Amino acid sequence: MTGMLRLVVGLAAGLALTPVTVCLLRRTMNSKLSGAWVAEVIVVVAAAGAVVALWTPFAMAFGAAFALLGVPAAAVDAAEHRIPDLLSLPLCGVSGVAATVAAIASDDVGCGLRALAGGAAWGAALLLSYLITGQPGPGDVKLAPSVGILLGWFGWSWVLGGFLATYVLTAVAGLIGVLLRTYSFRKGQVPMGPSMIVVAFVCGTLAQL
Hints:
This protein is an all-alpha fold. Helix content is 81%, strand content 0%.
């Protein structure tokens, strides 16, 4: 299948997932979900589907889970500065199962173990930061293992590079938000979830080029 055809198929698959994603978003957001917000989420999920279609077959399982659960988690975090357990915990479970199944199917147990270790590393790093500084929030800590598992599947360099990229992207987004008076560093209002999900998709794509 050519790259262009895979993009089209992925785009169609992403659009097919949007009703479920929007339903999850409505269930987990406390604030009213505007039509513009729904449209933006639909565009992001469709784009994510197109990107994931370029991934290897084993990695697509991760991508589908992140499109279905990760995108609404990032959307809720951006709007309400929290990540619902209804999204982060299933994503973590699905990512772990996907890593195990993919490792068995591909006869690469080491790759699966590295993915799980990457998830543990990300989760431990953010949990330690939360216990010491109170930042990032508990929702970010619960989302971190999923991203670590995905990046661990591709290699330790992606685990470390993605971790650093997440903090850099969060800082840049926070600075822009502060300038626009949307966020406040003093009150710890800079959401980290969107950065983690963006890094997951970007690194996941770059790792396969």
